[in-house]
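Whether sequence alone determines local backbone shape is best considered at the level of individual chains. For completeness, the protein is quoted in full, as a sequence line and a line of structure tokens:
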Amino acid sequence: MLSSKLLKSVACPLSSSIIRSMHSALIVASDGSEDMELVISVDILRRANIQVTIAGLQDADRVTCARGTTIVVDEKLADVANKTYDLVVLPGGQPGSNNFASSSLVGDVLRAHEKAGALIGAICAAPIALQSHKIALDATLTSYPSVRGQLEDAGYKYSEDRVVVSGKLVTSRGPGTAFDFALKLVELLEGQEKSNDIAKAALVKQ
């Protein structure tokens, strides 16, 4: 059996300059996050060669999504909360979205990335975490229909478009718009051509 050290020595590593040039994304996962929104976001971003870290909100090595899918996380959010990424993504679902909204740690991460000028993406019910932590309060956004009133009451301008980009904030509506959401994030980080190539390879109708 080859040792991990030997495997690393015979692998073809990326040059340090290429690694530094890769964009990074933090996808926050919670028990009760929406399965499709979490998995599709991870998959599409990784197809774009974006360095994705799945960070679990709970103090565990995995999360159980709203429909029962178990996801092993890369890190615990508490262990990477002080790092800065090019993109932070909050999948929706319940009780995952409520968990994000009530977490002071999620609030700290969102505020730090907003201040740093990073992209922030939230889909389905997850925009309630933006409201709870007072992120981009003057933005136009969209969400799952059931939380529209809550967001409008907080002062957000609301759109029923499938994906809404408002400054550095990207929001979307639900499981059926998860591909649109993830491909828009790729477009904003890597360009339209890369997004189109991934959509074509994945047979996503545009």
